[in-house]
Amino acid sequence: MQLITLAAGGFLLAMMGWSVFHLPVLVQAVVLLSILAMVLFFTKPEVSLLVFFALRAIFDLLWWIPGSIASMNMMELYTGAVTAMATMLFAMDVRRFDRHPCLPAFTVYGIVLAIGGLRSMEFRAGAEILARYASPLIIMFLVSTYFDTRARRIRLFKVATAVCIIPVVLSVYHLATGQMNTYTLAGYNRLLGAYKNLHNHALMMMFIVTMSTWWWFQTRQRSHKFVLFVYGGMAALAMTMTYVRTAQLALLVFLFIFLYLTYRRRYLGVALLAVVLLALLNPTVQDRFKDLILILNPDDETMLRRKIGSGRWGLWTSSFTEYLRYPLGDIILGLGVGGHWVLTRGYFNPYSIAQQGYVDPHSDYLTMTYQVGPIATLAYLALQMQVIRYALRIRQYSPDRWARHFGSYMVALCVAATVANCISNAFINRTTLGWYFWGLAGLVFAEHQQLVRSGRVE
Hints:
Layout: H1 2-22, H2 25-41, H3 45-59, H4 74-92, H5 103-118, H6 123-146, H7 150-163, H8 165-176, E1 184-185, E2 188-189, H9 198-218, H10 222-240, H11 245-261, H12 265-281, H13 283-288, H14 291-296, H15 302-306, H16 308-323, H17 328-333, H18 340-344, H19 350-354, H20 364-397, H21 401-423, H22 431-454
Antiparallel strand pairs: 1-2
């Protein structure tokens, strides 16, 4: 053990020395923090997970940092490092998860992912996609095990909520300084915020609104309610200014289900009335969601249907038709990680020019199916169903108000995530959203385990 420790310390020291001479100052700081996090991870995993959740939202905003290591930028290095460490810890403590309700589906999911990785068209891209698909679920297992007390679970949710103040403040700052005048897409001036990708911005703001909404209903102090109202209102404003329909639809689904499950009928009625009035009176809302009329109109022209959702309908149908032309083995196991690009190149759509022909299907479930087959997609959906199932059990059997409301929150968030995954790249292909969603899902299973220990459920 002393020799191993000495060798590891020498390697880390050599890496730090190399970084001093070859990397920018900001990158050196990131490398140093990464080394400290690695040392901390295996000694205090629950503290490390809190740190990782805090840094994840911040790293999304640091895409402008120059420099790379082994052709990987800071975000890729961060994701890869956390994935590697989480996988090692999961493997070391695998016996802790032998009775976890998600283990059967995850085992199938992992096997199919491994097969898809071996059939990957490009090693680097394949490794990145595999990390994106696997790391949130591994983190879920770790959270469900190491956050075994109510205080730790509340602390994790608070950390996730508090750290997201940073992107919200930056979004409002960019809105106030006129960023929307410099970024236009599909005829609308849009707020990009501090993000590199517009949909990342919109979906993160949507997720932040859900967290602030839950805390607003949870707290009883007026001062806290006022702060949370301002916080959630700024996030909602930033999300609205992106004009991204996926985030808006997902948020509406969340609000309706959450208000219904928590028996807040008056708030639900107000929300429904507000949606109806906006649909009837707001020209922007009518223009953005006019595609719904095309879907419901069976007599519409084929070309108009193919343009639904900024070309999504045509992209989905053409790529799926192409997918079914492959041999049965490829249909069952997918085309390999990264193989989804092949299925979309034959369809000309508004995304083609912007992405130089590398167009993904713009549906998380289709993207996963094309790469690793329907077995993996069904396994992933089974994992989501387990989240809903156990969240409903918490809502029904827990004597604690916090836990019951958290169960309702996770049911609503899971359904909203499913809607977003169906129509866009959301909680699967966007790593930050995946980490936060499955991290909170881990709290569901940890909370349920407490009910088991107390004898309230079997």
